[in-house]
Specification:
The protein is an alpha/beta fold and 438 residues long. It is built from 19 helices and 16 strands. Strands 2-1-3-6-7 form a five-stranded parallel beta sheet, with helices on both faces. Strands 9-10-13-8-14 form a five-stranded parallel beta sheet. Strands 4-5 form a two-stranded antiparallel sheet.
Length: 438
Amino acid sequence: MAVCPRVLLVDDEPDLLDLMELTLTKMGLETDRATSVAEAQAKLSTARYDLCLTDMRLTDGEGLAVVASASALPTPVPVAVITAYGNAGNAVAALKAGAFDYLAKPVALDQLRALVKSALKVPEAPASGSSPRELIGESAAMQEVRARIAKLARTQAPVYIAGESGSGKELAARLIHRLGSRADQSFVAVNCGAIPETLMESEFFGYRKGAFTGADADRGGFFQAADGGTLFLDEVADLPLSMQVKLLRVLQEKKVRKVGATTEEAVDVRIVSATHQNLAALVEAGRFRQDLYYRLNVIDLVMPSLRDRPEDIPELARALLDRLGGADVTLDAAAMRALSAYAFPGNVRELENILERALALCEDQRITPDDLNLAPNAPAAQATPGSTYPLQDYLDQAERAAILDALEQTRHNKTAAARLLGVTFRSLRYRLERLGIE
């Protein structure tokens, strides 16, 4: 016989406790209640619970103490906190402390039910050695990334993924989704830089019939498509300020209003965002809203560049060749050395492009350095003994010199310079910004 899920409700307001208890009982759940931090901690240590809902402020302390106690148990209990309306700071603090999710007062019963359903599907932590294998590599950096993803998958906190273009940010976002409680729901990926500003609101939130010319039927947007699942905002730094304001409201209220509608509708979406740009610097420059930045960057995940984990290149190259249909093709020792010495400004995506090209050019099922056709200026610079530069400064100077030389040769045609350097135009643009080259 299946064991009925049990929920611990922690609040010092009897009316709210009664309301939550009645709602959860109607969902077929067992409930228990506590009115203080001490009582909640005592119950957590002596009984089994599948979920805990706690107020942020209790008579004898903070709800964060309940979060800490539940997280420290041999079998951690997911905790959702209830915060005062509009107090984003408390919600963010709770998520950073390990809370599963949060609700704002006054508690909306539809949001409460959605949160509980989601929380009770939280998977067990993956056993040691069973981390997602799609992120290939055994370097210390990749082991750390996989371990962090396994932890992030157990919460509903917004995640911000930082990293260079081609470093696997979307792959990481998909793994967070697939390992979490929303795995059986939609994962919707949106490239924020690819949507015209005039269409953004209707694409994100949908529209009503007749809202504008051509709107001949009601249509949902990205938020409706991702309802119950995960919405991945790639290149979120490209959102115009006008759209940032609207997105912030949706994250705060968990409701969207279609273009042409007069009412809002609730949505249950987990937000994962990413960009190759420095969001903190954009906030300082006034190009990205600080309040939205703190909403998105509750927990961060940094994807390492390929040049920071060269020991993973042989395994990555082999896996990519197999995926590209080159299972019977070999990389000779010289080709592998050339790949390991290459800087990969385009990261794993560039490695895949190089191998796909080499697969088409090679003969006798064997890839040589000539087949790789690596750009002459792109191998990672080697620091000379006794150099006065820190390594990163030295590499930056070498990269700057190569880019300036390419721009000079192409009369400052950036597209041609990118081609000469063997990188994408987008990668070159990023490096021009990072190095401060006008």
